[in-house]
Amino acid sequence: MNLFHRRQGQMDQDICYFFTDTIYQFKPLLENDDLKRIVINSWKYLADKGLIVVYGYVIMPNHVHLLWNMLEKNGGESPAASFTKHTAHQFRKYLTIKEPKTLQQFSSDKTDRRYQFWKRDPLAIPLNTEDILIQKLITFMLTR
HSE-up of 114 (CA within 13 Å, CB side)? Predict the structure, then answer.
C-alpha cells in the first residue's frame, strides 16, 4: 500500500510503534480506575494470545500512549482494531450499569454505532531504532 494513502493509525506487523488513541471529544473517561482496568485487561488479553508485545504504556484521563509491536492479526482484524472494539463494548456495558449519564455523553448519530468512545484515526509512529524506543520508555516512566 502506498504510504501516502495510509491512515495515520495503520500499522504493520513486527514493527514497534508509539501509539496514541484518544477518547472521543477528549472527554476524561479514563479518570475512572475501572475503565483503566478495561484498557489494561484488553492489552493483557492480546499479549497473552501472542498477538502483541507491550513495552510500556501511559493512561491519561482522555487518551492512552502505548509502545507496542503487533505480531499477528486477531482473526481478520488488527490487534489495534480488536482493542478499540473490545474496550468500547466493555465501556458501554460498564457505563450502562454504573454511570448511565456518562454513557449518554458518548451517544452517536452515526448509522454504524450507538456510542463512540474512541476518536477515529489513532496516531501510530514507527520507532526505527532501539534508542528511540528507550527514550520513549524513559519518558513514560517520568510521566507516571
Answer: 7
What are 61-72's pLDDT values in tens digits? 999 999 999 999
Do 55 and 32 meet the contact criterion of CB atoms below 8 Å apart? Answer: no
Q: How far is the C-alpha of 4 from the C-alpha of 93, rounded, in Å?
A: 38
Are the beta carbons of 107 and 25 closer than 8 angstroms? no
Around Cβ 26, how many Cβ atoms within 10 Å?
11
| Separation between Cα atoms, residue 80 and residue 63, nearest integer Å | 14
Question: For the chain, where are the E strands, in sequence order?
Answer: 16-22, 52-59, 63-70, 123-126
For the chain, how far is it from start to end, CA to CA, in angstroms?
A: 37
Rounded to two decimals, the pTM is: 0.88
